[in-house]
Backbone:
């Protein structure tokens, strides 16, 4: 196993939007593959045609493209182990169903749904297994001629896996250690249905993983109860020596209370549970996405990586390269991870601070255009540099810095009542003249002249600066005053001051 190339897969079903829990599973597979110089395979598990949703596959691919999770082979990526869509592998599965039947590891069952319901009513906690299969209609209880005749007639049947009772099945899990389950509690799972000539998930999963040379299966905790069955299937095929190693990841839990994270939790508390906005083609419902809600993909990746895994140090903000370097399955938690969506907002704030001002300015430009603002890009970059530490999302920038681009149309009543004194109009008129005469309009140049003027006049600094802020901003917010006036420029600063004096006097 040590010399075997690492090959992992992410295999979603195209049944709707990709849940954020699925994104985390794909991320952990990606980090593991990259760390070990391995391959990440994208497989589509679409054997259940009744649940197929148009557009779901494209949505999943677009989500990973946005997040920066790259696949090495698979659906839409190509590769030497295709086809990678299960519905295109029917003949492959039939071959392996036949191998199990011929080796006595599986059998054909003709029981109708009505017959199975009757048996469930007759036997409490009925399970199709070694204790009950002898009383059912299958190839173990019927003559071969009758079985062949029914198949020839086109009677529908299923193929069930024959599980031998009373055997301890050992699953070595990279996160949970050795898990032992007695085979007597397992039922003879259906592996294939003649009705649609398709395998069930269990058979397709094992055959595909084997043929695609998957070395490690990293998947959600909900698949742990199926792991003993999968181990037994590998054995039945004689593939135990190349069986992948298993790692079952902890569940993502509700932010509050108990249970698995659901879309309802997001709707109730106001956070997305999908990477991109999803328009359900059947119901018409629209579900919010991280991208459309204003999250940066790097922030989502960093946030998700730490839900159920820790790097073994106090570091929280990590790039994808750092995550790849530090990732270790043995540091994954065995217990579920509370989905702290507020931490996701914190991460977004951190990444906005880290990104170059030019990059955030580019993201801010469409919002400025929406408000009819057309200014030199350099000005946008400057304003972003001053104000981005005050926001968690780029879309919040307009609310905190619109005054840099649009003069106040009105003045906040509460602020004016508190900050506009009896002599404010007189003082602001004087200050406007002082500012108009400043030759060095740099931040430092302005500050020296204005502070000297305040001292010379014996004015109260706080009263002057608060009134000054009101004239330029329209309320009591914003950065350092001379930062604001420097960005606005001398002419705009003086014009705003004069207008405010006229309105507020």
Residues:
């Amino acid at each position: 196993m040590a010399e075997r190339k690492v090959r992992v897969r992410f295999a979603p079903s195209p049944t709707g939007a990709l849940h954020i829990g699925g994104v985390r599973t794909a991320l952990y597979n990606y980090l593991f593959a990259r760390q070990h110089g391995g391959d990440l395979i994208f497989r589509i598990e679409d054997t259940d045609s009744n649940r197929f949703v148009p557009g779901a596959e494209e949505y999943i691919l677009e989500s990973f493209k946005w997040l920066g999770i790259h696949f090495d082979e698979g659906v839409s990526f190509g590769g030497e182990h295709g086809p990678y869509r299960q519905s295109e592998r029917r003949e492959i599965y039939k071959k392996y169903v036949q191998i199990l039947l011929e080796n006595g590891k599986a059998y054909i069952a003709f029981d109708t749904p009505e017959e199975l319901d009757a048996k469930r009513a007759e036997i409490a906690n009925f399970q199709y297994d070694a204790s009950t299969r002898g009383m059912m209609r299958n190839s173990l209880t019927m003559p071969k001629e009758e079985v062949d005749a029914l198949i020839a007639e086109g009677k529908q049947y299923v193929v069930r896996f024959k599980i031998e009772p009373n055997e301890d099945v050992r699953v070595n899990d990279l996160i949970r250690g050795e898990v032992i389950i007695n085979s007597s509690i397992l039922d003879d799972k259906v592996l294939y249905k003649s009705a649609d000539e398709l395998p069930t998930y269990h058979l397709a999963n094992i055959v595909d993983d084997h043929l695609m040379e998957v070395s490690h299966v990293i998947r959600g905790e909900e698949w742990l109860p199926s792991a003993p069955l999968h181990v037994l299937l590998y054995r039945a095929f004689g593939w135990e020596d190349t069986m992948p190693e298993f790692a079952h990841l902890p569940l993502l839990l509700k932010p509050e209370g108990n249970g698995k994270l659901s879309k309802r939790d997001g709707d109730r508390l106001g956070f997305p549970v999908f990477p991109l906005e999803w328009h359900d083609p059947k119901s018409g419902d629209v579900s919010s996405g991280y991208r459309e809600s204003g999250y940066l993909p790097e922030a989502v990746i960093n946030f998700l990586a730490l839900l159920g895994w820790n790097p073994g140090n106090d570091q929280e903000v990590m790039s994808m390269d750092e995550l790849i370097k530090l990732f270790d399955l043995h540091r994954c938690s065995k217990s579920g991870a509370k989905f702290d969506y507020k931490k996701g907002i914190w991460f977004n704030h951190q990444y906005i601070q880290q990104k170059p001002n030019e990059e955030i300015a580019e993201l801010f430009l469409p919002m400025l255009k929406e408000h009819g603002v057309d200014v030199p890009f350099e000005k946008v970059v400057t304003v972003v540099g001053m104000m981005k530490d005050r926001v968690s999302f780029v879309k919040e920038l307009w609310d905190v810095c619109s005054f840099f681009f649009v003069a106040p149309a009105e003045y906040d009543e509460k602020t004016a009542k508190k900050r506009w004194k009896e002599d404010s109009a007189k003082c602001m008129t004087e200050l406007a003249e002082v500012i108009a005469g400043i030759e060095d309009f740099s931040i430092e140049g302005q500050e020296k002249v204005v502070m000297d003027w305040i001292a010379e006049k014996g004015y109260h600094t706080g009263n002057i600066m608060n009134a000054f802020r009101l004239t330029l901003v329209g309320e009591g917010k914003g950065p350092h005053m001379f930062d604001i006036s420097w960005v606005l420029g001398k002419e705009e600063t003086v014009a705003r001051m004069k207008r405010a004096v006229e309105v507020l006097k």
Observations:
- Residues 20-35 form the longest helix (16 residues).
- The first strand starts at residue 7 and ends at 10.
- The domain at 413-504 is CATH 1.10.10.350 (Arc Repressor Mutant, subunit A).
